[in-house]
Model the fold of this input.
Amino acid sequence: MKRGGSMDMVIDHIGIVVRRLEEGLEQWTSLFGYTPLTEQITNTRQKVRVIFLHKRNSCLIKLVEPTDDQSPVYKFALKGGGLHHICFRCDDVSAGVERFREKGYHILSEPLPGEAFGNEKIAFFYARQGLNIELIDTEKKSGRRDLQEGRP
Done:
């Protein structure tokens, strides 16, 4: 929905590139107290493995590991990885893509099915200040585990 001429968007998760999911998972669980929200999911289009982590009253974290040297995050992971993107959820990815395009933002990936999101569409943009933005229009997370304490 548009409000005051802008598209309503909320942060869905923060994407962190890691060399190996197991190492990232160890850090985020032991140091920060996060727990897995999903199973590990392989995204064959992006050539990555991902896992979503949650913590009560905190933002979701998506750890991203390249599966081969053709992955868009491979070189970043070799350098140690780190903050890769902030994902915003909106009402319509296609409308969001058009809005970003009209504002002159560089589209890194046109809307494609995202395997980590039940094959719902995702898109990526470069939003300046060194920040990649992922855009989704779903709350689906593939491989989601049952939670005792409810939705994070």
Notes: Residues 7-136 form a domain with the 2,3-Dihydroxybiphenyl 1,2-Dioxygenase; domain 1 fold (CATH 3.10.180.10). Confidence is low (pLDDT under 50) at residues 1-5, 148-152.
